[in-house]
Amino acid sequence: MKRKHLCRVAILAIVCFMTASVSAQTTPYGWRGPERNGIYPETGLLKQWPAAGPEKLWETLDAGKGYSSPVIVGDKLYITGMNEDQTQETFSAYTLDGKQIYSVAYGKPWDQTYPETRTTPAIDNGKAYVISGSGEIVCLSIADGKQLWRKDGGKVYSRKTGNWGTSECPLVFDNKVIFTPAGDVTTMVALDKNTGEEIWRTKAWGDTGAYVSPMLITYKGKRQIIGSTAVHIFGVNPDTGDVEWEFADWGTARNATGWASIAPNTPLFKDGKIFFGHGYDINSYMLQLADDLKSVKLLWKNEILDTHHGGYVELNGVIYGSNWLNNGQGTWVGVDWNTGESLLDHNWENKGKGSIIAADGMLYCYNERTGAVALVKPARDKFEVVSQFRITKGSGPHWAHPVIVNGVMYIRHGEALMAYKVK
59-70: buried (b, 16+ CB within 10 Å) or exposed (e) per residue? Predict the structure, then answer.
């Protein structure tokens, strides 16, 4: 009997631990896939597309102008955009055959250059969380788009932005939603996801804000939020808001402390290593996080993979992404995760850079200038385009990151949203 009792206790402890582990994770419905690393957990996808591209399932031209990506939860798709006169950002719900269910206004866009909506919504327990270009954090019901709470974080925390306002996708975990206003009041805040009330705030460096969507990592049994301003990358205790480490050693990188320190990409994290890149010749960096999560050290720097704002992915020990040659051009690069060695540097579509994701062992690249979408077979020393086609609907730069869910690839170009069968 005693042995059976101990067995039951052990099983209960395991169940409790598993439950705690699951509840401690971020919502899987948001920016750049379940882990915020651009990897979508799909299987059985096509390894080659027809000559004209994969089958288009549907398209709509009423998504509103924006650079954000769609989020699919159950049998619905959610996306942010702008209303017709571009005075409000909107949150819209669609069926999975492209029919709009509703579209509601929730906040003010950035009022200067590139005002189009940027925030990819985070969906959690029937609620959507978005951050407007003017720094409003808003919670809506996904059932009908009704606004549940709103906080003008830009005003409350005296946000300090660069040339393109706030461009952040909310990080949602536990009972918190994270916002990074930067400036002289605080750098990052945690709000109660049910009420919008402040839970904690970090110290302030007085930095200008970046355009980075933060991430939550777990290492050595401890958790930490990794975030960025235009000057610092840093780690925050998710329970207390204490800044546990900071890094701002850009060395002699050109524009390292000037206006071009835009920091637009969410870092990658794996086995205690943190990779990030800024564009504008600030280069890319690999940090080693200490076992106690209280410090970092620089492992290597790479001057070739200098990603502008298209993100990067890691597959089989190689980091893939496009670099920045100028605002209109770049090449596609592969770098060894462990050493920082440059492995490939490929000119695709007349030096067209862009965004990148991965699924089922393949790379999906979206050229920001030409609208070409490529299926690429990854290799350490070769950028092999297996198939490609071109997006012709929509307007503006092709800056939205693709999404793949349940065998369907979603591509957004301004007001246009398309769905393609890739399985």
Answer: bbeebbbbbbbb
Cβ count within 10 A of residue 146 = 11
Which of left, alpha, beta for 360 (phi over 0: left; psi -120 to 50: alpha)? left
pLDDT digits 0-9 by tens, 181-226: 999 999 999 999 999 999 999 999 999 999 999 999 999 999 999 9
Using DSSP bridges, classify how beta strands 122-124 and 354-359 pair: parallel, antiparallel or unpaired.
Answer: unpaired
Determine contact, residues 118/134, Cβ cutoff 8 Å.
no
Give the residue carrying structure tokens 């709103």.
150
Q: Per-residue pLDDT tens for 5-44? A: 434 433 333 333 333 333 348 999 999 999 999 999 999 9
pLDDT computed for residue 418 by the predictor? 98
pTM: 0.93
Angle at 353 between CA 278 and CA 325, to 5 degrees: 60
Which pLDDT belongs to residue 261?
Answer: 62
Instruction: Return the structure tokens found at 163.
Output: 């040339």
Cα–Cα distance for residue pair 59/73, rounded to 1 Å: 19
Residue 10 burial by Cβ neighbours in a 10 Å radius (0-12, 13-18, 19+): exposed
What is the structure's pLDDT at 250?
A: 79
Q: Which of 129, 189, 121, 130 is nearest to 159 (CA)?
A: 189
| CB contact at 8 A, 331 and 347 | yes
Which pLDDT score is estimated for 252? 60
CA dist 66 to 69, 162, 221, Å? 9, 19, 38
CA distances from 248 to 251, 257, 400 (A): 9, 9, 28
pLDDT at 256 (0 to 100): 52
DSSP 134-165: T-EEEEEETTT--EEEEEEHHHHTT----TT-
| Cα–Cα distance, 316 to 377 (Å, whole number) | 12
- What value does the CA radius of gyration of the chain take, rounded to a whole number of Å? 21
Query: Contact 391/410 with Cβ under 8 angstroms?
Result: no
How far apart, in Å, are the Cα atoms of 352 and each of 325, 377, 381? 10, 18, 19
Low-confidence stretches of the chain (pLDDT beneath 70): 1-24, 252-261
Cβ-proximal residues to 20 (8 Å cutoff; 6+ apart), any chain: none
